[in-house]
Specification:
By secondary structure, this protein is an alpha+beta fold. The protein folds into two domains: 276 residues, FAD/NAD(P)-binding domain, CATH 3.50.50; 91 residues, D-Amino Acid Oxidase, Chain A, domain 2 (2-Layer Sandwich), CATH 3.30.9.10. It has a nine-stranded antiparallel sheet with strand order 1-2-3-4-5-6-7-8-9. Helix 1 crosses helix 8. The longest helix has 18 residues.
């Protein structure tokens, strides 16, 4: 101890390092034991706090009127920044999936295995508003994810639009959706078969009664670039990337009375047990708030609490084909009423295509193997029927990825569980999670900060509809 300062140091065989220093108005504290790191600093009006334990990272900083908070744990990435009256939030959905080996490379993450589409042509206003907000984020991505002295982010955002085709059987649904989309602010136009043929002469319009074409804020982008932009931004701010698998959790239970007078158990998660990759070691990670954004694997965590979540993995195939005489640069992301879709993939006559299987023909989800016979039997005949040029094509590559499929209504589940008072959900998007992730992240941040949605009203997508078994059906699932 010297003057107003205090200095202490101790090291033990098991690996203990403790350091404390206080001088004048400042406080500096540092602790490290085994895999844990704890760091605390306070000086005048500033507070700096850093904690890393096993697979979790917690970082907290307060200065004057500003608040900076970062947390990465198990199934997701949570980033939050508030300064004065402003709120700045990023959320990476399904990009960090701790249940998959090798997740630091994201090679099996649903994000990078998706088709990378974004559209406003949904049947529910909530999904349309989510897409509009996310499209705005992507158009201005360097304002959000740009890093000083690094190359600007180029999402390769191709705004050629989506083109949905309707048969006579479903044309009335397209007309209803069109009205909803226009009222929500989406720029969409309806086309007759004659107009469709004039605009896209390479198309066979047999069986088409009506078409819906997105005029702006629709198209496709590079999923890996978006993922890497989030990651690069986080790392530039001092984030340490950690990975692990949640295998168990601890929680407390209290008994409450419902509005009807029934007794109910209210749970609160106190910590989770995390297994590190390629290791037998388990580490407990304490948590005040849990955001479940584990995509196709998100049902595992609530199952540990005995609570079912109607989200399961559904495997989908994406095929890359080469057709030198195929549709040109004006080709939209076409979705046929038969279920088949395709879009351009760069230049040089390359396209990606696929379709969802029938309900009773869902493929095995224990692996990511591709069924090439599915393309031969299901995809190619429908593709060539709609675009005759595709009668001559060659499959050059293919891959498979998982939808986080909501079996209740194929819609996202966003918000806190009514009976787990510190678990928030952002899952079950059934194929449109990536395109909605920036807007969903902001919405989850609002729930945590303000206790309610403030930018977009997404209360209809909450967990209560799951408990009540009241589906909120989205009719435009690809």
């Amino acid at each position: 101890m010297h003057a107003a300062g205090l200095f202490f140091f101790y090291m033990h065989a098991a690996g203990l390092f403790f350091f404390f220093y206080m001088h004048a108005a400042g406080l500096f504290f540092f602790y490290m034991h085994a895999a844990d790191l704890f760091f605390f600093y306070m000086h005048a009006a500033d507070l700096f706090f850093f904690y890393m334990h096993a697979a979790g990272l917690f970082f907290f900083y307060i200065h004057a009127a500003g608040l900076f908070f970062f947390y990465m744990h198990a199934a997701g990435l949570f980033f939050f920044y508030m300064h004065a009256a402003g709120l700045f939030f990023f959320y990476m959905h399904a990009a960090v999936n701790c249940f998959l080996p090798g997740s630091p490379q994201y090679s099996q993450a649903s994000t990078v295995l998706s088709a990378g589409g974004i559209r406003q042509q949904f049947s529910l206003p909530e999904n349309i508003h989510l897409s509009l907000a996310s499209a705005d984020f992507m158009r201005n991505i360097n304002e959000h994810l740009g890093v000083l002295n690094e190359d600007p982010v180029d999402l390769q955002f191709n705004q050629s639009g989506y083109l949905f085709l309707a048969s006579e059987e479903v044309a009335h649904i397209m007309e209803e959706n069109y009205s909803t989309q226009r009222n929500a602010g989406a720029k969409v136009s309806l086309l007759s078969p004659t107009q469709l043929k004039e605009k896209f002469p390479w198309m066979n319009t047999d069986g088409v009664v009506l078409a819906s074409h997105g005029l702006e804020n629709e198209g496709w982008f590079d999923p890996w670039t978006l993922l890497n932009a989030f990651r690069r931004k986080a790392l530039s701010m001092g984030v340490i990337q950690c990975c692990g698998e949640v295998t168990d959790l601890k929680y407390t239970t209290s008994r409450i009375l419902s509005a009807d007078g029934d007794e109910m158990d209210l749970r609160r998660i106190g910590s989770v047990k995390v297994q590190m990759p390629n290791s037998l070691e388990y580490q407990p990670v304490e948590c005040a708030i849990v955001v479940n954004a584990a995509g196709a694997s998100s049902a595992r965590l609530p199952e540990m609490l005995g609570i079912p979540l109607p989200v399961e993995p559904r495997k989908r195939y994406v095929y890359v084909v080469h057709c030198p005489d195929g549709p040109g640069l004006d080709t939209p992301f076409l979705v046929d009423y038969s279920g088949v879709y395709f879009r351009r993939e760069g230049l040089g006559g390359n396209y990606i295509t696929g379709m969802s299987p029938e309900e009773g023909e869902e493929p095995d989800t224990s692996n990511l193997e591709v069924d090439h016979q599915f393309f031969e039997d299901k995809v190619w005949p429908r593709l060539a029927s709609r675009v005759p040029a595709f009668e001559k094509l060659k499959v050059t590559s293919a891959w498979a990825g998982f939808y986080d499929y909501n079996t209740l209504d194929q819609n996202g589940i966003i918000g806190m569980h009514p009976l787990i008072n510190n678990m928030y959900f952002a899952t079950g998007f059934s194929g449109h999670g990536l395109q909605h992730s920036p807007a969903v992240g902001r919405s989850v941040a609002e729930l945590i900060l303000d206790g309610d949605f403030t930018t977009l009203n997404l209360s209809g997508l909450g967990f209560r509809r799951v408990l009540a078994q009241e589906p909120m059906l989205e009719r435009n699932i690809v």
